Automatic annotation (TrEMBL):
This is DUF523 and DUF1722 domain-containing protein. Pfam families: 2-thiour_desulf, DUF1722. Residues 190-306 form the DUF1722 domain. It comes from the Bacteria. InterPro entries: 2-thiour_desulf, DUF1722, UCP037004.
Length: 323
């Protein structure tokens, strides 16, 4: 199966160089594996604006209604430099499919970044987004965006990779600019999209049917907007159960009662968070192979991203909800 090569901007301290404020480097196995299948663009915004390594820490402080990036030891304000760098960087980087940023960093954190008062008391007045990350959300609101800590959670990692590689593949479809390519893309993603949203699956299907005879450029633009809406949230377990039950319907004549019961038991264990989804889909895919069902075998639902990136282990440190 063909997979597009996504472009992912990554915090440089996550395995690329020792650019942390204390001179450390964070070796991240997930980022390392992803690098075999994606184009990674490392960036350290703090080093880029001249803060150096090692460096006195910077933090976000509240001054009136504004949040400023301040180096506490010198009380120097680096907000202007960071905004200028981010504007320049994103003006040159081109199309980006995803971001993996350093969690809780005052520049790169995507949530829960501490914002202090403007005194030296160290009081946290609110939590928010890092200054560089603000530009990320502003310029690429529909990209796959995560921080490295949350990606230790299996469900968040699954959603991130699925969205990342799906968006990259659609970029290729959009570049080809043909209805034939769009029809093939939609057909391959039918059950994956069903797991995310039956509502948006139907709406995207209507766009592909193109009964209004729109220009292909108009269809692709509308389809892309719908795709972003579909991927806005990770799918629920019950949605995956529903999809697997649909897939079982293809084999109702060939499955014995005991085989059917076995799959239903696997689904029950998956619903109870006792098994990963792959424990069920691998069985269903084996049936598709046995029945030589080419339509099902082309479904991205079975492998929405390169299988070598699959890792069902979960450290338990990640959070349950995805951005």
């Amino acid at each position: 199966m063909h997979y597009a090569i996504p472009t992912v901007v990554v915090s440089e301290c996550l395995g690329f160089s020792a650019c942390r404020y204390n001179g450390d480097i964070i070796h991240n196995s997930f980022v390392s594996r992803l690098g075999e299948f994606a184009r990674l663009v490392p960036v350290c915004p703090e080093v880029a604006i001249g803060l150096g390594v090692p460096r006195e820490t910077v933090r976000l402080v509240k001054r009136g209604e504004e949040r400023r990036l301040v180096q506490s030891s010198t009380n120097r304000d680096w907000t202007r430099e960071m905004n200028e760098f981010a504007t320049s960087f994103f003006g040159q980087v081109g199309e980006v499919d995803g971001f993996i940023l350093k969690g809780r960093s005052p520049t790169c954190g995507i949530k829960d970044v501490r914002v202090y008062d403007d005194e030296e008391s160290g009081m946290v007045v609110e939590k928010g987004v890092g200054l560089f990350a603000e530009h990320v959300f502003r310029r690429f609101p529909n990209a796959a965006i995560e921080e490295e800590g949350r990606l230790t959670n299996a469900a968040i990692r699954e959603h991130f990779l699925t969205k990342l590689f799906s968006l990259a593949l659609f970029r290729e479809v959009k570049a080809e600019g043909s209805m034939k390519a769009l029809v093939q893309f939609h057909s391959e993603h039918k059950y994956l999209f069903m797991a995310y949203s039956q509502k948006w699956l139907k709406q995207l299907g209507r766009l592909v049917a193109n009964r209004e005879r729109l220009l292909v450029e108009q269809v692709l633009e509308a389809y892309e907007q719908g795709l972003h809406a579909l991927f806005a949230r990770a799918p629920q377990r019950r949605s995956h159960v529903n999809v697997c039950q649909h897939l079982m319907g293809y084999f109702k004549k060939g499955m014995s009662e005991k085989e059917k019961q076995y799959v239903l038991e696997l689904l029950a264990q998956y619903r109870a968070q006792q098994l990963p989804l792959s424990s069920v889909t691998s069985v269903l895919k084996s049936w598709a192979i046995r029945e030589e069902n080419d339509y099902l075998l082309q479904q991205r639902y079975f492998a929405p991203y390169p299988p070598a990136l699959l890792d069902v282990r979960d450290s338990g440190k990640g959070r349950e909800t995805a951005v």
